From TrEMBL:
Protein's name according to its UniProt entry: PCI domain-containing protein
GO biological process: mRNA 3'-end processing; nuclear mRNA surveillance; poly(A)+ mRNA export from nucleus; post-transcriptional tethering of RNA polymerase II gene DNA at nuclear periphery; transcription elongation by RNA polymerase II; transcription-coupled nucleotide-excision repair
Family annotation (PANTHER family): NUCLEAR MRNA EXPORT PROTEIN THP1, UNCHARACTERIZED PROTEASOME COMPONENT REGION PCI-CONTAINING
Molecular functions (GO terms): double-stranded DNA binding; RNA binding
GO-annotated cellular components: nuclear envelope; transcription export complex 2
Signal peptide bounds: none
């Protein structure tokens, strides 16, 4: 079935925004047909930007009742999308990324003003975000070839998303009616429904670009912005992701107990999902991958708190992770300082990348010395029924350290 500009404008006028998709794998046929018309608009020539703007401004979009004569930002976003359709090169991301990010920015700007009917655009924005972030990561992976800065595109994504996050505030009315009681999640404005989603996207980006300290402002402002009073009303997926990211943030701030609570809760929530759906974790790739992300930090944090997992269970998710921390656990619990230092040196690069090296260096030696003293007292002092540690016991302890 043929699709043209007239069909496109008609869909928009009726509030159907599903075709405002940048993903060519999903919307490639529509984009291709619009591109053909836009590139042969007048006597075989492509429509220029000025004519494209005039064309969009001449449309009478009737899907909103705001009492305003026009929605300028919406028109700008539509022009941006049509530019993308006209000029996109489906075979070259490097030639098209400016069009992609311009549309994403203009779409984001549409959602900033709550006086317009922005809720139907929220799902489109989420879909665009899911498409844009992997694209930004891919471009950043080739920053030297593109002659751009490291993490330039992900940083740009975060600046766009943060504008929307900052625009969200608790509303005193819904659809013009004053809120008399706590609304249900389904009654909330669109931006409120995706607030936790935005929090997670921003914090994930900050971790990816090596700036996790920026998460502080996001975590601090999340609760004041939210109209949701019960955290469990948010989608389970977003709850788990939030607790995982908050746990990692606590690790960086040396709050081990808080980190353990958040990571453990995230793990328990995912395990509960598997139980409810009657799914074996090891047989579900997405579930297994997400639990592995959590265990990557939960296991070492638990070790620092002297709370060890059942390594045979961890091995069902990740054998290498289980073996690695089983070796570390054995060193700690036998008071083997030399073994501990060797383990830290062996995995130094990996631990530094995961922001675990410093906290393990700080916490584990003291815990290992405690086990060493316990071992010496139990095995060499108490059998002598003495209350003093003899010299030969100290020598034994030193030998244990350096064996």
């Amino acid at each position: 079935m043929s699709y043209n500009l007239s069909s496109f404008f008609n869909d928009l006028s009726n509030g159907l925004f599903i075709n405002l998709s940048l993903d060519l794998a999903v919307n490639g046929r529509i984009v291709s047909q619009l591109q053909s018309e836009l590139q042969n608009y007048s006597n075989g020539n492509a429509i220029n930007d000025k004519s494209l703007e005039s064309l969009v401004e001449s449309q009478s979009f009737q899907f909103y009742k705001s009492g305003k004569s026009e929605w300028t930002r919406f028109n700008i976003m539509v022009v941006s999308f049509l530019r993308y359709c006209r000029d996109v090169n489906p075979w070259s991301l490097s030639e098209s990324y400016d069009l992609i990010f311009q549309f994403y920015s203009d779409l984001n700007n549409c959602l900033l003003n709550d006086n317009y009917p922005i809720d139907p655009l929220v799902p489109i924005y989420q879909a665009a975000t899911e498409y844009i972030i992997p694209v930004a990561s891919k471009l950043d992976d080739h920053y030297m070839v593109l002659h751009t800065r490291k993490h330039q595109f992900l940083s740009h994504c975060s600046s766009i998303i943060s504008k929307l996050f900052n625009s969200i505030k608790p509303s005193r009315s819904i659809d013009g009616e004053t809120i008399m009681s706590e609304p249900s999640f389904d009654q909330l404005p669109g931006k409120q429904k995706i607030l936790l989603y935005l929090v997670n996207k921003l914090n994930n980006i900050y971790f990816k670009i090596g700036s996790p300290q920026l998460c502080s402002n996001i975590f601090k402002n999340f609760k004041p912005k939210s109209m949701v009073t019960i955290f469990s009303e948010f989608p389970v997926k977003e709850q788990v992701e939030y607790r995982y990211l908050l746990g990692r943030y606590y690790i960086l701030n040396n709050k081990i107990v808080d980190a353990f609570i958040q990571l453990n809760n995230a793990f328990l929530m995912l395990s509960s999902v598997a139980d409810v759906l009657n799914i074996k974790i090891e047989n579900s790739s997405p579930l297994k991958r997400n639990i592995n992300r959590i265990l990557k930090y939960l296991v070492p944090v638990g070790l620092m708190m002297n709370k060890l997992p059942k390594f045979w269970i961890v091995s069902k998710i990740d054998v290498n992770l289980a073996n690695k921390y089983k070796e570390l656990s054995d060193c700690v619990r036998t008071g083997n300082i030399k073994g501990l230092n060797g383990w830290l040196k062996l995995y130094e690069a990996e631990l530094r990348k995961d922001h675990l090296l410093l906290i393990l260096i700080e916490k584990l030696p003291m815990l290992t010395y405690r086990y060493l003293i316990r071992k010496v007292v139990l095995e060499y002092t108490m059998p002598l029924s003495g209350f003093k540690v003899p010299v030969f016991s100290i020598r034994i302890g030193i030998k244990i350290i350096y064996r």
